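Training component of the fellowship. As part of building independent skills, the fellow (R.M.) carried out the full modelling exercise for a liganded target. The chosen ligand was flavin-adenine dinucleotide. The inputs are recorded below so that the supervisory panel can assess the work.
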Amino acid sequence: MRASLLEFHDIAPEVRHFVFEVPEVEQLQFKAGQFVSFKETLNGKKITRPYSIASLPDRNRFELCLNLVHQGIFSPYLFAMKPGDSVEMSAPLGFFTVRDPAKEALFIATGTGIAPFRAMTPDYLAHPNAKQLTLLFGVRHENTIYYRDHFEALAGKHPSFRFWPTLSRAESSWTGHTGHVQSHLLEAIGDRRDLDVFICGLKAMVDDVRAILKELGFDRKQIVFEKYD
Ligand SMILES: Cc1cc2nc3c(=O)[nH]c(=O)nc-3n(C[C@H](O)[C@H](O)[C@H](O)COP(=O)(O)OP(=O)(O)OC[C@H]3O[C@@H](n4cnc5c(N)ncnc54)[C@H](O)[C@@H]3O)c2cc1C
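Fellow's submitted model of the complex:
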């Protein structure tokens, strides 16, 4: 199938929110947390790159959150797209989805690793038996807390949802969490060891968090992760 770009807007320097539609289907079927793979021939080579869907199923539309990798191949191509342009894509895939919404959960993201959680958070909270959910989101500065309004609105509506952005280069006016996501794991987990943890972002952070969780006594099966690199 082909995905046609409807619109985009920049949500931070070199970070863009894209809205696509797939004109040949009426409803694009996927679960919150899955990704699509884009394919294009670039510099004479067929290139494929996966991107997490940052929206809930809505007719034939889906949204993405991407950062520009300057030395990269595919992200500069996507950043050059204009509304009306299209790109080849595969049907949504992936196992980074909430398994048991009746189980307490911790979501951990850095940077554009927030993309799948933009869909998984409302998906989890919509479940009638949803338990406590914490989203720990690491970025550098306050003005790069992507989708802040979206998550704050969810936290306002669902007392069982805690939204904890943490800033690694916080300005002095910031009163929230500071430092890396790794430093707030214990605070988020407390003495609980029976929750599911979902981690999304670059390899270094994901591996670090997994190692800490294993040391704390978490089982492999309780840790679900998506590495972007
Ligand atoms: C399942 C899955 C879902 C993904 N979802 C997203 C998403 O929602 N948003 C998104 O921006 N990316 C996402 N990615 C990464 C994406 O597929 C590409 O790797 C990324 O756009 C870079 O591609 P490129 O061709 O421009 O650069 P490449 O030439 O492939 O890579 C250049 C370098 O950039 C590094 N890199 C890869 N991804 C990133 C990143 N996001 N930020 C900084 N450095 C990176 C790689 O380690 C590599 O060293 C996802 C990856 C996977 C495996």
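The panel noted the following from the submitted structure. Helices lie at 74-79, 115-125, 148-157, 185-189, 203-215. Residues 27 and 80 are 27 Å apart (CA to CA).
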